[in-house]
Amino acid sequence: MSTAEFRMHGHALVDWVANYLDTVEDQPVLSQCDPGAIRSLIPEHAPEDGEEFTDIMADLDRVVMPGLTHWQSPNWFSYFPANSSPVSVLGELASAGLASQGMLWSTSPAVTEVECAVLDWLVDLLGLPKSWKMTGPGGGVIQMSASDSTHTALVVARERCNAPIDLQVVYTSNQAHSSIEKGVRIAGIKELRLIDVDDRFAMDSVAFETVVLRDLDNGLTPSAVVSTIGTTGTTAVDPVERISSIARKHGLWHHVDAAYAGTAMICPEFRYLQDGLNKVDSYTFNPHKWMFTNFDCNVFWVADRKPLIETMTIVPPYLRDKASESGSVVDYRDWHVSLGRRFRSLKLWWVLRSYGAAGIRYHVREHVRLARDFEARILGDSRFALVAPTLFSLVSFRHISGEKATIDLAVAINATGKVMVTSSIINEQSFIRVSIGQTRTEQNHVDALWSIIDAHAIRR
User: Fold this and answer.
1) pLDDT for 199-247, tens place per residue?
2) How many domains in the chain?
3) Rounded CA gap, 332 and 85, in Å?
4) Is residue 134 part of a domain?
5) Does 296 sit behind a cis peptide bond, omega within 30 degrees of 0 on the bond before it?
6) Which of 204, 182, 177, 198 minimizes the C-alpha distance to 259?
7) Domain that holds residue 243
8) What is the pTM of this model?
9) Which CATH number belongs to the domain containing residue 171 in this structure?
10) Cα separations (Å) of 130 from 111, 121, 123, 295, 418?
11) 375: in domain
């Protein structure tokens, strides 16, 4: 493809994407295709000769669209958001066009220095400890997902712990994300303790210390604890400060998972929920959830970068250069598992500049307002009961007639094709999660969701 053809087809593709964003609201949110249906539309073998790009692009409509579940629909109330925005898409396009490798500072200084600057911006915007800036002992790095960051933190904690791996123990609440259990496996640690929670589904710090003391009495070595700011089921917030005090007393690495709710901290009124961050060892959140930056874009901060770099650094001869050996630059390949890394910070930089802090605050606050309005409707209807408080923009509720009524309602909501929610279970009780936070979700979309719920919920 020549650059002239690239211009022509590129314009057509941007038009296609813009049209998609304009019309996605009209699509069934959940893909309606049967298993194998998309695969059957693709030939068994790759073409011997190249195809015309117009034919390739036509398969976006013929092959891809029927098999999409539309995460960018304003009627998306499922899981958590995986938001995009036009400026983020353009940032991704520019990054793909530049195709830079940012494994070392010297392989593309701009990739490293833009990332350092943008993550320092976020320290200020989110009210995080100033020592996490690149000018301090800590620092931040962009990774693919919160899972990657959590897995990295647990490996660092394992290496830092002065005990055989078979004796190490990791702790988290029984409401924590499944990535923590996976991270424990990846780190090769055999012992994971799921700590009981309180009536708001936050980790019980007394129960946590009790289990730590029991393990110490049994000759085991507590190595790490993972607390959560905004659990997946109910957006519960663990008592970070109390957990930090216990972790420091017993020598544990303390990692905080704020994958979803971290974005909310751009609004000062939520920052009381993150008290104690000045005592933690690492922290992660996903701009690709609620900060209008398309996947993948996760941020991982450490309070002290030295243990991270000591764990991750391997320097073969072909990666040595004068800039790295000077100690005056950041080589991000030493901050995570992968060597190669792309220019993820470009789209985040553009989003922050395009929306501005005030613009992001506006949208976060509006989503929270919509969620609390929805919560009020749940509380005002005798058919329903809240499962947990609405701290951010997730409302978790159940039908008071029981399991069958709750499950049937969730199935009926999604069967309309007009909206999508998720169901989950807590304390052996099913409930429905309504996550309000998609980039384009407005009052009329929440009103339409409520109408569907009202129409399909059985009367008492």
Assistant:
1) 999 999 999 999 999 999 999 999 999 999 999 999 999 999 999 999 9
2) 1
3) 27
4) yes
5) yes
6) 177
7) 100-341
8) 0.93
9) 3.40.640.10
10) 22, 10, 7, 27, 45
11) no
